[in-house]
Fold:
Amino acid sequence: MSAGTLFRGATVWDGTGADAFAADVLVKNGRVARISKSRIAERDAETIDAGGATLMPGLVEGHAHLSFHKATRNTDLGDIPPEEHVLVTMHNAKTVLDAGFTSAYSAASAKLRLDVVIRNEINAGLIPGPRLRAAGPEITVTGGLGDETRQHQERSSFGMVADGVDAIVRATRVCIREGVDNVKINISGDDFVTPARGDLTVMSEAEVKAAVETAHSYRRRVSCHARATESVKRAVRCGVDVIYHCDAADEEALDMLEAAKDRIFVGPAIGLIYNSLYEADPWGFTHADACRLGLDKCLERSRSVYAELRRRGVRVLVGGDYGFAWVPQGTNARDIEHFVNLFGYGPSEALQCATRVGGEVMGMGHELGLVREGYVADLLLVDGDPVADVRLLQDKTNLHVIMQQGALYKNARGKTRAKRETVPA
Ligand SMILES: [Zn+2]
Structure:
């Protein structure tokens, strides 16, 4: 039994929404063993002098694509050979952990087994990366988001094309056979997809139902891409667990999401939309290009929909489709700022989406996402107060300690071992 790690004199922001408080926190055997507002005398623990820095839960990326890398178009991902793609995904996993994300809920892997092998290596302690719920490619219908093939040319990106109930059932089972934790389906199109635009619901109700029933029969989760309001309603009706985007949700769809709020999670994945509008110019994708695709309207719709989902208490995940060229891996914490600036979340609320709510979606039988006795010790020690300025988390030099399951992945503060290493005078 390890003597553990003691954070001495931390300011604990625990992820519940309560105000931060001064405390000592003892971590033992991968979990938070004790939180005390008075001094913990633990002679044998390695002690980190927190000096008032903020001890908070590790961040959870709720829409991760660890295998997406510097893509300017979807086919860029199909063009990466599998050998290179494993290494790229491995490097991205480290980059995301370095940015303070100790967990990631995948919203798709560009090739079937990329997330799976990286998850397995991370779990085995062989490579650094966030605790990962692995996804497969995005199961999509012919002509849907992720089908890049044309009559004259086979091309791939992150899609796995399946048409009809039988093919959807088989694609779902193949993903599960190969080890994914959550199956991704594309119910609506997207604004940059010809012919399936974002306002179109192209996967049939029977197909969605078949994917969900199949995945649930193996106790796997389903997440979906759903922009059009009908696609959101279809997802709720068919029992999808995580419903991404939802930007065109009408009043009826909002009511359905609210009625299902104890069961579902949603996520705007707004980072990609925001940066496509305002920061993609160096890649030759101008603001005017983005507006021609309707991304300005998508952003406006998202603002009103997520302000409303916040008001209705629906669980919203932080995560922004990072991995395209202008939303690089490792900048994921910007989404927390977007929740504040675009959707009207208070800083503490936005941080809870990135910690407590993310911990809930990760599930996995762990208690994750809070600094609480008995919870898994995925922790950050942050120089400064992220509730006063959520942007602090965007600069990894402010992340003095990154701890995963009680193990110090990063420690920029040094540690002392009380008593044991004291040299007699
Ligand atoms: Zn995505």
